[in-house]
Amino acid sequence: MEPLRIHEGLVYPLNRTNVDTDQIIPKQFLKRIERQGFGQFLFYNWRFHDDGEPREDFSLNDDKYKGASILVAGENFGCGSSREHAPWALEDYGFKVIIAPSFADIFYNNCFKNGLLPVTLNEETIQQLIKKAETERYEVTVNLEAQTVQDSEGMQESFDISSYQKEMLLNGWDEIAVTLNEADKIDQYEQNIVKY
Amino acid sequence: MDHPKTIIDKIWERHIVHQEQEKPDLLYIDLHLVHEVTSPQAFEGLRMKGRKVRRPDLTYATMDHNVPTIHRNVIKDEISKTQMETLKQNCEQFNIPLADIDHPDQGIVHVIGPQLGLTQPGKTIVCGDSHTSTHGAFGALAFGIGTSEVEHVLATQTIWQQKPKTLNVKVNGNLGKGVTAKDLILAIIAKHGVRFGTGYIIEYTGEVIRNLSMEGRMTICNMSIEAGARAGLISPDDTTIEYLRGKRHAPEGEAFDRAAEDWRSLATDEGAAYDATVEINAEEIEPQVSWGTNPSMCIPVSESVPDPENAATVNEKQAIERALDYMGLEPNQPISSVEIEHVFIGSCTNSRLSDLQRAAEIVRGKKVKDSVRAMVVPGSHNVKEAAEKEGLDVIFKQAGFEWRAAGCSMCLAMNDDVVPPGERCASTSNRNFEGRQGNGARTHLVSPEMAAAAAIEGRFTDVRQMGSAVLS
After folding, report:
1. A164 touching B, CB under 8 A?
2. Can you tell me the distance from the alpha carbon of A166 to that of A157, in angstroms, rounded to the nearest whole number?
3. Helices marked H in B57-213 — which ranges?
């Protein structure tokens, strides 16, 4: 996994609440057995007509958001299915950071395994970011080390993140390797399991 | 006595492998269930790093999401076929027991775990599937995980978890005639929203929960994730223990008695404290029908679709408008006036024997409306056989239902069981998200009884007004 420390990028505003993982990556694309290549299917039913033509009424298709790498959305982002294909699709499309007032638990955890940073900010700040990004080309800098989001006009907000998840992302660690360092403790636990 | 504890605290403490400051706990996993959709990348990850599956004996796999429910061996979609074959190869390579499409134990992963007695009180259970919360009905700590975590559990039989907060959902009173566990959980989510459980593990308590069968309890715990909670559970009692007695993977003889004693001791202690509590009055609950595009957008069958003009916030107004537009509904339209073209009785929420028995009682001797295509998809091969032994298949077929083989089917339409664009389905499944049952498909979540009634009438009907003698 690629480490993530500071990311500066273009904001794409998705002013919707309860965006579920069925919308992020519809089920017809879950049949692949690889981890890569899901970006082309991101938000598929919102982005494309049945014949595969891009929908003009979905703003991600707008040229002004080309190259966006920071997605800002409404509360409870990533709810529903546990499919890790959702962060795979977001990451493969080019997103590095997702900012929302709240996230669904499974999606939130899945992000960290894929070098994607979920940032929780208050509703008021989110609405300001969305308004800005809807009206102009808007870039922000997300600093994981300092736990801040800032823009060139002096906006600066801090966010909370657990130290464990922060370390994982900062270092791009392989979690399984970390756990296998504790293998003796797992052995010991297994020896003490009580059988009925 | 130690200070009183919840079942959540007791199970958690038993499973800590390693604990240190500033880190999540490393928890041991007792049962890892695997299916074809969320596992291929995990096995591939193991191969790339030369890692093994630590405990294949605590791992159990089946095929459910992609499997055809008709013409079982004709898998038209090449990619689905590859995914199923990949699971078979992975299970062979890593020595994991598999109930494949031809196996008598095949079925939806959350139906077969309990049915085989793999699901037991006090276990930690994970699966790459958000509806793993279902197994909480047995007093197990069961939750859905992503594919990276699947790989982690395969390699280490453990998972790093920050302990969630505890939420007591206490259901008082009694459910009325014709009001089911499905109506109860839909009504709870309608009242408290799709994220009131986020960051919590729910324990369902109260008289109503104690009086539910294991199958009803599974329906409740199944939809915990639709309230945002990764896990929802119910303290084990006599109902739990009697259900497990004699199941293939349950302990036998004296070992069963020792297990039962231990399971009883896991129940939440009198006076244990939760981080939050909500109380629900079951007496107020009517049969439910969802009208929108998330499970909280749900109303009693006697009511009308909401008007966005009455929304409390701008966000809510926009969400209602979007949902009405997608669903093709008008504000203030009575939900009982909505006509449907499809009925789906199935899914990990409502595909067990008692679900099919109750739906069959509604359709017995009646005919599915000409304009409706209705199907029953039993949750497992075993459920299908048990239902056929009772003649339920005949009742459904004579009424005009299609009687299918086991799988996830139209709950998420990964196989050929798809609702066409713009058409409407009364579904006993768990999610009414946009496109869930097919691109442009419109899903209305209901109980098996309400789905059966809708099949007969061609629109939503209060099941309590249809031959009430058969309602439990």
Report:
1. yes
2. 17
3. 78-94, 109-115, 147-156, 181-192, 207-211
CB-CB neighbors (< 8 A) of B432 in chain A: none
Residue of B nearest to A33 (CA): B40
Q: Which class is domain A6-192? A: alpha beta
Q: Which of A22, A82, A189 sits opposite B435 (nearest CB)?
A: A22
Buried residues in B181-214 as b, exposed as e (16+ CB within 10 A): bbbbbbbbbbebbbbbbbbbbbbbbbebbeebeb
A23 in reach of chain B (CB within 8 A): yes
Q: Where do the structural domains in chain A lie, given as residue ranges?
A: 6-192
Look at strands B124-127 and B141-144 and give their pairing: parallel
Contact (CB<8Å) A176/B151: yes
Q: Which residue of A has its CA nearest to B151?
A: A176
pTM: 0.97
Is ipTM over 0.90?
yes
Q: Output the pLDDT for position B470.
A: 61
Rounded Cα–Cα distance for residues B167 and B444 (Å): 28
Q: Residue B41 and residue A16: Cβ atoms within 8 Å?
A: no
Considering CB atoms only, which of B18, B82, B436 is closest to A22? B436
∠ CA B211-B14-B59 to the nearest 5 degrees? Answer: 80
pLDDT in tens, A146-189: 999 999 999 999 999 999 999 999 999 889 999 999 999 999 99
